[in-house]
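forwarding from the other thread:

> can someone predict this with iron/sulfur cluster?

sure thing
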Amino acid sequence: MSGSTGLYIHIPFCLSKCGYCAFNSYPVAAYDPPLYLAALYREIEFWSGRAGDELFDSLFIGGGTPTILLTGELTGLLTLLRKKFVIGEDAEITVETNPNTVDPGKLRELRQFGVNRLSIGIQSFCDSTLQLINRSHSGADGRNAIAMAREAGFANLNLDLIYGLPGQTPASWRETLEEALNLNPEHLAAYQLSIDPGSRFAEQVEGGGLRLPDEEATATMAEQTLAIVSSAGLERYEISNYARLGSRSRHNLIYWHNGSYLGLGAGAVSNWSGLRIRNLADPNHYAKRLLNREPPWQEGEALAREPSFRETVIMGLRLLEGLDLPGLQKRFGIDPEEYYGETLRKLVKRKLLSSKDGRIRLTEAALPFANQVLAELV
Ligand code: SF4
């Protein structure tokens, strides 16, 4: 357990909607960011009294594309957050961004206002792939964003990449990966494309209008990822995440440890004081509620011990270090080996989980189909 507490702020706007995206994000042209920010400010106000002197050692402004906001809107938000919450002096402060929503001035200002980590949605450096997935930028825009971030003084960069995309081959994925690594990121997230319900791709796959790489090609891309990223000196510490020493994502570790976090903004989720709170997803509904001085959540539930324990097991096993069994028992008063009994023993016997020195973890063999293994423990 990391013991960290996180603060997440959701900015749900993007230039346009990418084909694979099922995140809570909306093309900005149809929305009113100043109205949204006015509502968000109210929510910040509401929580600032309740969070009291809780120390946040991670702040993550995510989306959507937060850098779609004007520089002054972003710096105003950062200033307000620092005024209303206790954000540690050495907190990890991340802003998520996409190429062609930043310029040198905006990045310099973010850096000056204490942002010390930038997470850039590169996805691919191949222009034809980027077009097929409806990204609003080119490979050159991606390179340019990274160069500008370095120039502005960012010493901690995460690059998000996706493999298994339409039109992608192991050779083109290798090129993207090698190019990304040549730019020396401190952190790299390489996700396999998933076709999520609600995305445009899900409809296209159903209608037979989308051709994806076959299973064999995707498996090759997964193997390449591990080999190429590891040989560049980044350590795989989660199923899809790699980092240089000391550069693991503090914010995501809070989620994987099922720790405590406040999530503000449309659709944001909080795990706070034994409660799980989920805000309304639609930015206009969210804003209307707050501007009418009503709470913006659509649901709130007390986290019962057992579901919370299971959730912690599932999330924690995503980390390659696995789960500390005595620590889990201490936290929840449940013995994991007794609780999962035969299921756990079978997974160990099938060499999908290993159990050693009081920890269980996914084996290397299980990593390519981790989700199916984890599903047995839900
Ligand atoms: S930029 Fe990210 S959040 Fe926005 S539509 Fe594309 S994938 Fe979704």
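The longest strand covers residues 86-97. thats all i got for now
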